[in-house]
Specification:
Distance between the termini: 54 Å
Shape: elongated
Order of helices and strands: HHHHHHHHH
Strand content: under 5%
Structural class: mainly alpha
Number of strands: 0
């Protein structure tokens, strides 16, 4: 398969019914890894991230015709991944009480065969899981992925000022979480 030079070429191929499946395969190949890690940092666990990634690509496939090209393809896909991650976390929070999550996070992380972090990484994951879902997502995109506030604003539909405040509050909460463990 010939790799397209840019997003515009992929979108043009998506419009041709004869090339649509191959073009979408290009999208999956090009964006799977980065989307997986965006999702994984929000939902924490490998199997959950795989499920959310699959849902993200299903949503992208079913709504690709509504992509107007006003943003980059990667931003549009990240927006879908963000929403799917928040939906997943909301469903998860509804099915698990807060007492269960705080006590069980450390044990579940240690049991995850895909988690290879040290004690500090485990504490960071625990701290992240105490944040509200949207705040966790903003922190993840800014801290781990080093996205600019403008791109995060486009993904989340939130103002840059509100994102800066959310990130600052998340940093304070994480710092307090670490300080309370000393």
């Amino acid at each position: 398969m010939v790799k397209p030079k840019n997003d515009e070429e992929i979108i043009e191929r998506m419009k041709d019914p004869a090339k649509r499946e191959k073009a979408f395969e290009m999208i999956v190949n090009q964006y799977s890894e980065s989307l997986y890690w965006t999702i994984r940092r929000i939902v924490t666990y490998h199997d959950d991230a795989d499920d959310v990634l699959q849902n993200t690509f299903i949503k992208a496939w079913t709504s690709i015709s509504s992509f107007r090209g006003e943003s980059k393809l990667s931003t549009w896909l990240n927006k879908i991944a963000y929403r799917e991650s928040l939906t997943f976390l909301e469903k998860q929070r509804q099915s698990i009480s807060l007492d269960d999550t705080e006590g069980g996070i450390a044990n579940t992380l240690e049991g995850d065969p895909y988690f290879d972090g040290d004690e500090t990484q485990k504490m960071l994951e625990e701290a992240l899981n105490t944040l509200p879902a949207k705040q966790k997502a903003v922190f993840t995109m800014k801290y781990f992925e080093e996205k600019k506030y403008e791109e995060i604003a486009e993904i989340t539909g939130t103002s840059v000022g509100a994102l800066k405040a959310s990130f600052h509050i998340a940093v304070e909460k994480i710092t307090n979480f670490f300080n309370s463990r000393d």
